[in-house]
Amino acid sequence: MHGRCASSSRRPTRGRRVRMPERAPLPAHVTMPLLDVVIRNSLDVDYQHVAEVRKAAGEPASEGVRRWPAAAIVAVFGLLLVVAAVQTKASAGADALARDELVHQIGLKRDGLRDANREIGDLQDEITSLTTRQQSLTRTENSLAAHNDDVGAVAGYHAVRGGGVKASLDNSADGSADGVVRDEDLATLVDGLWAAGAEAISINGIRLTVTTGIRTAGSAILVHDRALRPPYVVLAVGDVNSLQSRFVETSSGVDFLGLRSRFGFVFSMNNQTNLRLPAAARPDLVRAKPADAKTEEVAP
C-alpha cells in the first residue's frame, strides 16, 4: 500500500503547465543606461566618502550636500543645451542670410554674363561688318592701284618692260650738213612709232611723256631739257609682231623713211622681246588740281 503510493507519486502529469521559478529582478547597474550608472556610482561613492568623513568627525550627514552637485551638473547641462540651441538658431539665420546673398550675387553675375554675351554678339557683328568693308576697300584699292599703274605707264611716269622694237638713228656717213639729224627728223620717227601702236617710248634712256618736247638748241637736240648726242637709240614697247609693219604704213613713218633716203641717215630697226624703259620724273602740280569728272563740268 505504501509502495503503491510511492509509485503513483512518480507518475508524470500530462497536459499540465510546469511553472518555472520566478527570476530575481536585474540589478540597477544592468538596466540603467551606462552614463547614468557612471554618474550615479561616482556620485554615490563621493557622497559615501563625505558621509564617512563627517561621521568620523562627529558631524551629522547633510542631505543638501549630497544633492547640490547633481543639481549643478543638471543646470550646467541645461545651460549648454540652451546655448547650443541659441547658437544653432543664430547660425541658421546667418546661413539663411548668406544663402540669400549668394543667390542675389548669382543673379547679378548671371545678368552681367547675359549683358556681356549680348555685347560680344554686337561686337562680332560689327567686326564682321568692318571686315566686309575692309575687304571691299582693299579690292577698290587694288583696282585703283592697278588703274594708277596703267595710267602711269601710259603717261610715262611708271617704268615698263615688254616686247617691241629698237631703232637706231645717226647722221649720214658723208658728214654733209644736210645729213645731220635734226629735232624734227627725230620727232617724225617718234610720231610714226606712236601712230603704229607703241605704248611707251624712250630716247637715249629718257622716257617720253605727254609733255615731252623735242627741240634743238644750237647743234644739240634737247629732250626734257637734256642734250642728246648721236646715235639716237629709240626704244618702243608694243606689239613685237606688228609694230614695224604698222610703222611703215603710218603717214609719219612714210615721211621719216623719205627723209632717210633723201639725206642718207644711218637707220636700223629690229624687234626686241624684252625691253625695259625707265620712268620719267613726275612734275609737281602747282596750280592744277585733280577734278572729279562726274561732279564738275569742264569749262569750254
Automatic annotation (TrEMBL):
Domain of life: Bacteria
Gene3D superfamilies in UniProt: Protein of unknown function DUF881 (3.30.70.1880)
Gene Ontology cellular component list: plasma membrane
Record-annotated membrane-spanning stretches: 68-86
Region (Disordered) residue spans: 1-22
Key words of the record: Membrane, Transmembrane, Transmembrane helix
Matching InterPro entries: DUF881 (IPR010273)
Similarity-based family: Belongs to the UPF0749 family.
Protein known as: DUF881 domain-containing protein
